[in-house]
Every structure is written in structure tokens, then in C-alpha cells.
Amino acid sequence: MTHKQEKRTDSSRNASDSAPSRLGRPPGERLPGPKTTSVCSRSYFVVVMVFFHVYIINVIALLLYVHYSSGQEDAKPAPPYDDGSNSDRRNPHSPRPPFKASLPRDISLPRIEGIRVGHIQKVSLVPGKVHEMRTLSLKPLLFEIPEFLSEDECRIVMQLAQLKGLMESQLMVQDGQEELAKELNLSPEEIFNLLDINQDGQLQLHEILTHSRVRDGIWLTPENLQEIYTGLNADKDGNGLLNLEEFELLSPDAFQRFLLQQGVKRSQLVRNSRHTWLYQGKGSHQVLQNIKKRVTRLTRLPTTLVDLSEPLQVVRYEEGGHYHAHHDSGPFYPETACTHTRLAANASTPFETSCRYITVLFYLNSVEGGGETAFPVADNRTFEEVSLIQNDVDLMDTRRNCDKSNLRVKPTKGKAVLWYNYLSDGRGWVGEQDEYALHGGCVVTHGTKWVANKWINIDPDYKRQARYEQLVSHQSEDEDDEDLTVNSNIHEEL
Ligand code: OGA
Ligand code: CA
Ligand code: FE2
């Protein structure tokens, strides 16, 4: 047996021969080698070819399917914005009705693409000049455009503002706020529990700061607070924390009274600047109208939306001036009204915000020292409100902590920065507030600083925006009609 096997193995030089022998077939039953090879190869070839053809046909069918279905997608118009009732829930195989581009409900707000930080796109905003727009961050979607305004334009805007007169941006704390504290119908324990964010029975410095910042416009630093504790002998064990007993010994307006006694300085306010508003409509200075047109081209928004927005705000910071970090526009809930469309709203609403979809901030002069615009959490991986004050470092404090901001923009004469305060709703309209759009003006260490804000107001409630536009349409009927199709071609990749 061993011998036979050895013999057979010796005479078998190829794999097809050795296979039957391993199966133990008797040698006599074996078919001649060449014939076996021929039959097996043919059937093998047939099977392989059948599979190969089926495979090729499948691939072709798949490619055809992908081609035709994406072709349909391409032809699909941008989803028209409405109240949501018109969203595309049709059977995908049913024929689509023809797209009516002229319907006003089919407005889809263009949004400038950021691509990536550092990306530069060329924009044509004025005849004979090409501007370069650089992406500074994606969260928020933020761009800078050097030389957006000419030197003359900067000068004229500052002069017009001076001619009109600037007022204090934030009034000093009024005595009337003491009354407010008395009206507060809450027990000290209830107040304590509201302030104690982490509910550990102690008031940490940041818990008091978060509350005080919001409540009365005075910007308290951890050191201020320690001073107040010492002055009032509030923190008896000196551990920087207030327990309920310590808190109850304080009168409701103790902090307020202590600050007023000390004298509140302008530098302690949220905002230390002066400002005025310049109307940009018909009959206004040509420079102001030109700036508005340029902003319309830059944003590619319909002219009416820009025309119906707030006037230009011109701000002047003296040396030592600042604006702590803030949002230009608040969050939007179903119960929120926009200031600009409030008259068009049917019901009274508990909340109101300015609905500033876009901020365009212009630097009217180059500042000698400080005065950068800081974006503390730009392009942060995450956003958590509580982490804005950590280890008693308050990232929103632009007098002290601008150097810890993720992004700072240097104020250079003529430069504009543009950012979106709201995300897109994914259907071509305004969506949720972009929390990353938090920003502030760093303290001016040398010289003065002049900026201007152009805010573009859009109601996230499309119907309300449309109603408002209808209401005021007679005012803007014969304004020059800049064609959107012209606007759509001005952003060009570098
Ligand atoms: C503002 C503002 C920033 C700055 O006026 O709302 O954020 O750098 N200004 O002055
Ligand atoms: Ca606590
Ligand atoms: Fe701002």
C-alpha cells in the first residue's frame, strides 16, 4: 500500500492527478489524465464565465441605477422653505411637479461656504477691485475681508457718527435696581437653591458670577467677589464658598449696596463704549448706501432683507474700553419674537431677541494697542456654558482673558469680519443659535477704537418674516432691484 501510493505519487506531476488519489479511488478506475483535465477545465470555464457575466451585468445595472437616481437628485430644486407642511414626503417614483422658481416661498438663503480655516476666496464687490475673503473659523462660520472699506469711507463713517453724537452704550447702575431686589418675592433659601447650580449646598464663586453677570450688568471678577465677601464679612470661614447660613445673613441687595457704596466704575460694566446709529436708506449719505450694497453683494442675500435690517451701529471705545463676551442675538424658541418683526406677529410672546442672522463688523481705524475682537470658543470641539469659567478664569472676561480665547481678530482700518449667529435649519432658512458665535471686544490698551456693526435681521419663523416684508413692502417697492443671479457669481475659488 505504501509502495503503490508512493508509485502513484511519483507518476502524478500535477494537482488534478493527485486529487483523486487522495480521495482513495482505486488506481484502475482512474480515467486517463489528459481527458480528465479537458472535461474539468471546460465545465470550470463555463461556470466561471457564467458568474463573470452575471457579475458584469450586475455592475452595469448598479452603475445605471446610481447614474439615473443621482440625475434626479441634481434636477431637484432646493427644498422650498415653508412651515414644514410642504416637506417632500411624496412617493419617490411619482413624477415631480414642475419647479416654479418664481414662487416667493422658494427662497433659500445662501450661506457663504467656509471650506476650511485659512481658505481664501476672491470676491468681486466693487468695480475694478477684487477682495480676498479668508475663513477664520467654521464654528462659528467666520470670515475676514481686508480693505472692505476704503480709508475715505472709514473717515466719513466716523465723522457722520460724531456729527450725530454718540451715547453711552450701557447706562450706569441705577438706584432703582434696589427696588427690584425688594420686589423679589423669594426667600433667601429659595434664592440660594437657584444659585447653587451643582446643588452641593455651597455657593462657589462661579455660581455667583454666572448669576450676577446676567442680572445687573456689572461684570464681577472672582477678586471683586472676594473683596465684597471681605467687606461684608460674609465668608466667615474664608474658604471662598458661601453656605446657606452665611448666605442668609446677607440682605438680598447686600452685594448691590456694597458696590454702589464703593462706586461702580465704567470698567466694571459689561460694556464700556459709546455708540450711535446711522440710517442707510434712501436719502442717506452715499457712502452709507454704498456700504449697504456691498454687504448685500458679500452676503448674497436678497436686497430687501438687508434693506429692512437695523441701521449701521457705529461704536467708539476710549482707552480702557471693552465689551465682554456676548451673543449679538439670543436663542430662538417657538415662543420667541424677533424685535424687527414683532409688529407682524399675531400673538404676544414671552421672549424677544434681535434675530441678527449675520454680523458684519467693520474696523474703522487701526488700534494702537489691544481692542481685538475675541472669539473664546471658536472651533472648540464642544461647547459647555459652565466650562466658560474654570479655575476662576472667566473666558468671557475680555479685560483679562482675551489671551486665552481660541481666536482674536486684530482691528485694522477698513477690514470687515462677517459671521453667522445662527446655523442653517438645513432647509435653506435660519436655524438654531450658534453658541460658538460668542465674542467680545478686548480692552483697548492704547488709543481709541472705532468699529461699525451691520446686522442682518431675519426671523427664523419664515412666515413671520414674509408677513413683515409684505407689511412694509410699499416702502421698499422702488428700491433698486439687485439681481440675485448676479450676486451668486461673485464668490470665486482662489
Ligand atoms: C459688538 C461687538 C466687538 C468689538 O459691538 O457687538 O461685539 O471688537 N464688538 O468691538
Ligand atoms: Ca454649589
Ligand atoms: Fe457683538
Explained architecture:
The chain has 494 residues and is an alpha+beta fold. The chain is built from 14 helices and 25 strands. The strands form 7 sheets. Strands 4-8-9-24-13-19-3-2-1-25 form a 10-stranded antiparallel β-sheet, with helices on one face. A 5-stranded antiparallel β-sheet has the order 7-10-22-15-18, with no helix packed on it. A two-stranded antiparallel sheet has the order 5-6. The relative contact order is 0.14. Residues 315, 323, 328, 361, 373, 439, 441, 451, 453 line the site of N-oxalylglycine (OGA).
- SS strand fraction: 15-25%
| Bound molecule types | N-oxalylglycine, calcium ion, fe (ii) ion
Number of helices: 14
- Walk across the major sheet and give the strand order: 4-8-9-24-13-19-3-2-1-25
- C-alpha termini separation: 82 Å
**Mean pLDDT rating:** 79
Proportion in helices: 25-40%
* Total strands: 25
Largest sheet: 10 strands, antiparallel
Structural class: alpha+beta
- Morphology: globular
Q: Indicate the low-confidence ranges by residue numbers.
A: 1-37, 69-103, 480-494
Q: What would you report as the Rg, rounded to the nearest angstrom?
A: 35 Å
